[in-house]
Amino acid sequence: MRKTLIAWCCVCLPFCLSAQYNFGIGNGNYSGIQGARINPAITAGSPMQWEVNAVSAGILYDNTFLYTPHGSVPVLGFKSIYSGIIDNRHFVTRYDPSNPGKLYQFVLSTEVLGPSVRVNIGTDQSVGLTVAARSYANMRDLPGTTAQTAYAYLLQPDLWNKPLSDHSSRLNGMGWLQYGLDYSAILMDDGTNQLKAGIGLNYLQGVVAAYAKNTNLNFTVNDTANLQFIHSSVDYGRTDYDSYRRIRRGDLVHGQGLSADLGIIFLHKADPHDPTVPYDYRLGISVMDIGAIDFNRNAAAYHLQTDTANFAAWRQVHLASNLAVDRTLSAIFYHGDSSKSQTADHFKMRMPAALSLQGDFRLTTRLFVNATIVKGLHHRDDPGVIQPDLYSITPRMETRWWDVSLPLSLLYYGAWRPRIGVAVRIGYFFIGGDAPWSILGVGDIHGADVYVGFRYFSFK
């Protein structure tokens, strides 16, 4: 697990750094492009004539297995946290020997929204262009013995010579570049009620992907010289990580795909003659990230299966490339046949599709409260990353040039996480987080959800 975490952090973080749903900023009346990540219809009739997003950045990360104890790193100690990942410092596991079958979860969602623009067309339409780099990773239902054995590189003696099993683990992860065109329009407005809709179409370039499913492993680590499998099987796929040693941009693209976002918003305003009131309440529904990426360049899918296999001298084996890993595993499971495990030279990964419901209610001229539900849509047996479920209530104080919000939310990805956040927008700059307190030194660090950004806009 430690190598997997390091690999994903190193691959994803340098070019992908904003949480997909930043409730503290994305639900406001001046959210613009940021709000379109929750519902593409929100930009129609925007009070801003045009806007340019320079850059926004952040990360959503949470897990139930690893944590950094309170006080181990300084407040906002990002460098210390990063070096701790590389050097394996600061980490403690929640493995419980008295409950070795307990299941653990991991989720990572990152997104950078690069130079993007949106313009109003007349008073009732809006069109925008966006450029983003995104990544998701989910590890679901890892048994405690699997997680602890992997974290210790199979070198934990008290787990040797014990029959271990894993019939539940599932891994999905990918990173991609996204180029979007979105359009929104007011469909009906009688002064009291308004209905608007939006659509976003995205061209996707797959950069990195890996998955493992149908896990059925029964194994024993005897010592540093012998690893045994009996009645075991697993399916997995991956892109060619060795190809990233080349620095040309074209070498980073391992597949293409398409996705779509759809949304509808209804607004009600009791007094149509009061210009200071945008609405009394606003209701929305949206479906986001419907699509997939076909990884068909330097990619492969594999199936491993054996009644009995023995990995002798595993501690002394040096695997210099991912192809060497694949061939070695195949030779072990198929008794010397290093090519039998490969089943295809491509695979598809589903996008983190989600259904969202939003409600925004005006309490006073400046005070609003928002309720949003984001329900991740699963992919059955197909490989694909999964959007965690999110439930939030966010009170906010809002004006044209500043607002402050306090998102209260529940995150569910196989485990429930209650979260308290804060976000501030001042002019063209915003900063906040839906779960920032861990990196501020309030408690143990098991995850974070923070974002920051700068954009420029002009009011009508």
Keywords for this entry:
22-stranded antiparallel sheet, mainly beta, Porin, two-stranded antiparallel ribbon, 5 helices, disordered N terminus, 10% helix, 460 residues
Describe, in plain words, how this protein is organized in 3D.
This protein is mainly β and 460 residues long. The protein has one domain: Porin (Beta Barrel). Helices cover 10% and strands 53% of the residues. The chain has helices spanning 2-12, 23-26, 78-87, 144-151, 322-333, and strands spanning 48-63, 66-67, 92-93, 103-113, 116-121, 125-143, 164-166, 170-189, 193-223, 226-239, 255-268, 281-295, 299-312, 342-344, 347-350, 354-362, 367-376, 389-398, 402-405, 408-412, 416-420, 422-426, 429-435, 447-459. The strands form 2 sheets. It has a 22-stranded antiparallel β-sheet that branches. A hairpin with a 3-residue loop joins strand 18 and strand 19 (402-405). The chain is elongated and about 80 Å long. The model is unreliable at 1-19 (pLDDT under 50).
The ordered string of helix (H) and strand (E) elements is: HHEEHEEEEHEEEEEEEHEEEEEEEEEEE
Helix content: under 10%
**Beta content:** over 45%
* Weakly predicted, low-confidence segments: 1-19
How many distinct helices? Answer: 5
Instruction: Determine the CATH topology.
Output: Porin
